[in-house]
Amino acid sequence: MAGTLVSVSEIVRCHFCPVRFSLERKLEVRESPRYTIAKQVSSHLGGDLDAGAIWEEVAAILPEIDPSFRAYLNASVERCRSGAWRIPAETEVPVRSDRFGIRGLVDKIFDEEPSFAITRPTESPAIGVSTADRIRVAAYALCLRESLGIPSGQGAVEYIPSGEIRVCTPQPRDRRAVIRAAEVVRHIREGRIPKRPVHAPCTGCPYREKCHTGGKPLSDLFR
Asked: Could you report the per-residue pLDDT of 71-127, keeping only the tens digit for each?
């Protein structure tokens, strides 16, 4: 599978709706301003959280950012000040699983469990972590075990806007979902036509009116 590696982000998108993924997979995916901000705030956790200095870094990374996002950064910094944040051993580490054909970039790796963390630009859910983040953690855990020999049983999710970190222990269903979605991504790359899931998240989808039945040719959705 080395030549057909699927990214963790592709797995997450395909898990929720393979039809939408197939339609959008060739579109350029740009890093959102909120994600850029969350990443920079995260890089300073456990140290001095200087909102002005972090904003300068964000502006250097994303020169076209709208100044209105400064409020999002300031609020995130304030909420993160009270947290007890660990210092990672390494950051932005590329990992992969040739066995399952998965690749990704882990935001942080630690010497103790939870052995890694991912950074998110969204508010923390009422309980636990979101379904998408459970999939992310499960995928990265598979890659860490194979590429770095880290038998990780847990991962952490940094919800930067909330100033919270949540621990996630992937379950068998999460790992099954990762392996299944990775396979569907490869099938779509081969030109196979996916069907709309029974519980597809259609609300707000730009293809909702055209995609009302599964298994139709993708070209029909553009007519």
From this structure: 999 999 999 998 889 999 999 999 999 999 999 999 999 999 999 999 999 999 999
Residue 156: burial class (beta carbons within 10 Å; 0-12, 13-18, 19+): buried
- The Cα–Cα gap between 200 and 14 comes to 11
Selection from 110, 120, 115 nearest residue 80 by Cα: 120
Q: Per residue in 6-38, pLDDT tens?
A: 999 999 999 989 988 888 887 777 889 999 999
Q: Hey, what domains does the chain have and what are their CATH numbers?
A: 2-177 (3.90.320)
Phi, psi at 110, each rounded to 5°? -120, 165
Q: Which residues contact 169 (CB under 8 A, 6 or more apart)?
A: 153, 154
Tokens of 133: 């983040």
Query: Global pTM?
Result: 0.88
CA 82, CA 49: separation in Å to the nearest integer? 11
Q: Within 13 Å and on the Cβ side, how many CA atoms surround 48?
A: 4
Instruction: Tell me the Ramachandran region of residue 155: left when phi exceeds 0, alpha when psi lies from -120 to 50, beta otherwise.
Output: beta
CA-nearest of 84, 73, 7 to 36 is 73
Q: What is the DSSP letter of 128?
A: S
How far apart, in Å, do the first and last CA atoms of the chain sit?
Answer: 35
What are the distances in angstroms from CA 140 to CA 35, 181, 204? 18, 14, 29
**Contact in structure between 52 and 44 (CB atoms under 8 Å):** no
